[in-house]
Amino acid sequence: MLLDIDETILDGADHRPVITLLCMVAEKRHDWHPTLSQAARMIDLVERLARAGVRMPVLSQWAEEATEEAAYPSPPDARRTVRVGLADLEHLVADLDKPAVLVLENQLADGSFVQDMAAALDDKRIVEALRRMWLRLHNGGGKGQMAELAADEGKKFAIVSPRVAILFDGDRDGPGQPSDNEPRKAQAHAAGIQNVHILAYRAAENYVPLVVWESLYPRHRRRISQLRAMPANQRGYLKKDSYPGNGLPRQLTVAGRKLTEADFDELGPDVVAELRQILTMIHTIL
Predict the structure, then answer these.
(1) Considering the entire predicted model, what is its pTM?
(2) Contact, 206 vs 171, CB < 8 A?
(3) What are the pLDDT digits (tens) for 152-161?
(4) Residue from 157, 148, 132, 117 nearest 281 by CA
(5) CA atoms of 172 and 37, how far apart (whole Å)
(6) How many Å apart are CA 203 and CA 102, to the nearest integer?
């Protein structure tokens, strides 16, 4: 999250939430662009802790860099800003310290896809968030209860608006068709979960680059060649039994190499743009 921290939080009787907050900023879990005066006050706290024998290397490293960074204008950032002041500081920091939640129909299959897709598109922040459990993948157990589960996860955030998102399959038979997940998206919105994406294609299987299928199932080259020959607006709506195997691959690799953006380009002209939309949605809750 992008934070706007009021330096008066230092005037409170308890510095523990302040220290927790600064650690999250120092670890780049959340972003804060302090002014020079704000940085100076926070650095003073860090230095007092060090003199008292409190060893926190991550804060010491942040203190070395903060003044220099504060001397330059803040970079443009379109993310929603969370105001952090002395009022309700403890609850605010607790909300920011909870992992963001992405609700998926199938945590294992769809979760692996999201992780590998983020790596392929070089989204280091999301890869790091998954590794460090700053982003938690929640198994929806099927589309029927995903909106309700997301709303329940949202209730765990006391002050910061729910850091929860949902990724639905498209479940469409062709381009331009409505998804039967649209009512579930509306249900989520009504429950306060605004970050919801419905895939344009039928399901995540349709977003797996064909080179992955070729690598995993070399004996199915004829079938994969048929898939490659199909127009994107036909292939994107095939059911999972049209692909080799019994569902999503657990890892998107080709002969041990990591996928790249170019591997996804063959799936259709709008696929990479849509995948980046999904990553942007995830960033809004991180």
Answers:
(1) 0.93
(2) no
(3) 999 999 999 8
(4) 117
(5) 54
(6) 16
